[in-house]
Amino acid sequence: MDTTLPNPISQKIDELWSEEIDFLQEISRFPSISGKEKALQTYLADYLNAELGLTVERFIPDSKEIADHPGFSPPEWGYEESDVVIAKQPGPKNSIGNSLIFQGHADVVSPEPLSLWSSDPWVPVFRDGKLYGRGVADMKAGVSAMIFAYKAILNAGYKPGADFMLQSVVDEERTGNGALAALDKGYTADGALIPEPFGLKAAKAQVGSLWFRISMNTAVKDKNINQVVNVVERSQVIISALQEYEKLMNERPKPDAFKHMPHPVDVNIGTFHAGDFASNVPVKAVMEGRVGLYPGQSINKVKKELREWVSKAADEDPWLSKQPPEITFFGFHAEGVEMNDRTPFFKTLDDAHETVIQQPAERSVLTSTTDARFFNLYYDIPATCYGPDGGNFHEIDEWVDLNSVKQVTKVYAEFLAQWCGLVPQES
């Protein structure tokens, strides 16, 4: 079969470019914060069916169905407003290539504090060849690229030579349970590409992520102690302990993929709540955060170590030792993963990149967590992240470089052509 991207497809991507930008703007206007993806998912499902003729299936992830899966992360929320969208195009009876999934996530993180943005985060704006807005990079630009890569192939008169799926999953930012539920239901393939915005470099490794909650209480119930202790002040003991733990984690021997990084894993305190009145002494506090872990590192061992680290710090404090902090875990229980980047899957992606970009393919090592782990760790499906260039993910004034979005669209089309093969639509 011809594994080179036919010129008509590249031309179609150019012709569809303004439409792709309009589509990206439209889906970026949906405030699809994790747990509130349904409106965007409805829009995408309708588009994939009506505009691309794909067979669309939708389902709500059921935590009970996947609770025993080793990749499951325990949520403290439901999925009533978070359905998964699966759009399918069966290949010909006699496939000429490999089956493929393009998978993106619909959810984004909160844009708060809104007052610090240069413009409304839900009204994407253009500046200097970039598009700004919450979720434009992470990862609605990638979702647009994977959809329009397929649309350009259709408009050029071709279709995939093997089974093909476009998937839009949910809750990637808190657990990844949307992608896990799709795999658990049998929506699998011979390979999967996820367009995370890491600058047109295929990921070969990523860290894991574990979410924790530490509850503190300095209201000592002892009639012989007539003193109120400020829990905010005492919390510095725990924060310092977490900082020391982070230092220790990064001083330990690193897996090969991370050896060039001085600080690949972190302990981040994301929320802190204490007190309710300026003239009161707060006695209860809750902090929540995330600890990174390396591929192959046991989640249960990290839990045990973190508990011991916090307990030791509390035991050495005259007040926290009386009522030790309680540490619990929720949300992300994600393992790290190293991908085998010498497989035919990666070779095909490298070829597609070099054909379109006319530069050697590069690799990235991620200090963040993505849904690619599920495919590689539990289903023996080669998968990686490859997407456009952007910045300020999870921060103020998130942006994506628009030229890189077009490049990724063409790489995705080229990859689909090589991996699945292409056949004329009439066949």
Structure description:
Residues 227-317 form the Peptidase M20 dimerisation domain. GO terms for molecular function: hydrolase activity. This protein is an alpha+beta fold and 427 residues long. It is 34% helix and 22% strand. It contains 11 helices and 19 strands. Helix 1 packs antiparallel against helix 11 (402-420) and helix 7 packs across helix 8 (299-315). The mean pLDDT is 95.
SSE topology sketch:
Layout: H1 7-15, H2 17-28, H3 38-50, E1 55-59, H4 63-66, E2 84-89, E3 100-105, E4 125-127, E5 130-132, H5 136-155, E6 158-160, E7 164-169, H6 177-184, E8 192-194, E9 202-206, E10 208-217, H7 231-251, E11 267-274, E12 284-293, H8 299-315, E13 326-334, E14 337-338, H9 344-357, E15 363-366, H10 372-378, E16 383-385, E17 390-391, E18 399-401, H11 402-420, E19 422-424
Parallel strand pairs: 3-7, 3-8, 8-16, 9-15
Antiparallel strand pairs: 1-2, 2-7, 4-5, 5-18, 6-19, 9-14, 10-12, 10-13, 11-12, 17-18
Helix pairs in contact: 1-5, 1-11, 2-5, 5-11, 7-8, 9-11
Q: In CATH's first tier, which class of the largest domain applies?
A: Alpha Beta
Structural class of the secondary structure composition? alpha+beta
Oligomer: single chain
Distance between the termini: 14 Å
What's the total number of strands? Answer: 19
Rg (CA only): 23 Å
Task: Report the uncertain regions.
Answer: none
CATH topology description of the largest domain: Aminopeptidase
Strand adjacency order, main sheet: 1-2-7-3-8-16
Name the beta content range. Answer: 15-25%
Largest sheet: 6 strands, mixed
Percent range of helical residues: 25-40%
Individual helix count: 11
Give the tally of structural domains. Answer: 2
Mean pLDDT: 95
Note the run of SSEs as H and E: HHHEHEEEEHEEHEEEHEEHEEHEHEEEHE
- Mind telling me the CATH superfamily name of the largest domain? Zn peptidases
Large-scale geometry: elongated
CATH architecture tag of the largest domain: 3-Layer(aba) Sandwich
Family: Belongs to the peptidase M20A family.
Organism: Salicibibacter kimchii
Cofactor: Zn(2+); Co(2+)
Protein name: M20/M25/M40 family metallo-hydrolase
